[in-house]
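User: Teach me something about this protein's shape.
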Amino acid sequence: MANSHSLPIILKLQRTKPRDKSYHHQGNPHSQTILGMHARTFFLTFVAIATASGFAPAAHACAQCRPAFSSLNKGECAKAMRQFSSIIRSNPRCADAHLGMGRGLIELKKYERAKSELSYALALNPNLAEAYFLKARISQELKDPKTAVAEATSCIKINPKFAPAYALRAKAYYELVYICFSKDQGYTKLGLADLDTAIALDPNSAESFKNKGIWLLSEKKHKESLRYLSRAIELAPNDAAIFGYRSMVYSELKDYAKAIKDLNRLVELRPNSRISLMRRSDFYFLTGDEKHGLEDLGAVLALNPNDSTVRNLRAAAYMKMRRYKDALADYQVVSKVNALDDEAFKHIGDVYFKLGKYQLSYENYSKAIDLRPDAGENYEARSCALEKLGRFKEAVKDRQSARDAKNIPAEKGL
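Assistant: First, the predicted structure itself:
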């Protein structure tokens, strides 16, 4: 079977200022996670591949090509390519054989050669709707949604009951609106209408219900989105991505318990998915379940012990829980992974300050300043350590440096 892609949803989640003091965070200690990670805008993208039918199956192909299409539909791409090549050698004007070659080359991601084969198939048979559809797929793979719209439209003109073409064109419209940031020239209305048509033509298409749900989520129509995604899950209960999307809907509706339930299923289906574990961890912390939140972050670190982002997240949680030694261990790993990370040394200084080890706190703040001398909060933090050490004149100088840096308002004490 050939593949069609679900819509990639893009949720722009605004972050807090990148250099907030971890020891001043109020409320959720997990404020740096997927839902609240500061330092950058986070683009959340789930990409799922689902099969789509209608690509000249054996029953509709010429007798010569049916065995080759059968091989292709079974996923035996190499065998199918040999069969199609043999047919083309004996009958170079067989449009179905060139169509099959094009489809096989798409599976191999050889898009330029595939386009050549499909164009030749259309020259032999201009009414070959599947060839236009496959060309539209190539255009999407090559990030050209405008051309994908045109080619899918050509397919629909020839075969107006070809449901996958409507679904593909809808995805191209979506990409024009949400990825290419084109002016919405009615694309949203057209795309949603295409998905309605795809569903009407194939009411058992989980992919179409899923994509309609994704689009409605992007439009912030959460209750409608929930209805379509729930139907998609009924049709495809093992499609992990749908559970990810629906968990987003539940999170927007503040129903974190149901979001966690969907993420539980997602993790069952994708046990080594970093982003799934991190998102579930986020919801655990939001609901006060620190134990399971930490377990999920630990599971991510089991996959990659040097994941600095997750180390920082877990350390921030430990700080809120006053488990300072555990936080210190994570921050020290981060500093070893990247010896130029001034924030890591700043955090280590914060932990030592909390532990009352002011000389070590001073030393790590000094390392942070050496790495980033324009960061006012580093001077401010060191001034606090200097005061604890009784070095008041130096503390005054650091406080002035903090004011001069203008990164944060200088205030006395941690």
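Now, about its shape. The mean pLDDT is 86. The first strand starts at residue 2 and ends at 5. If you'd like, I can walk through any region in more detail.
User: That's plenty for now, thanks!
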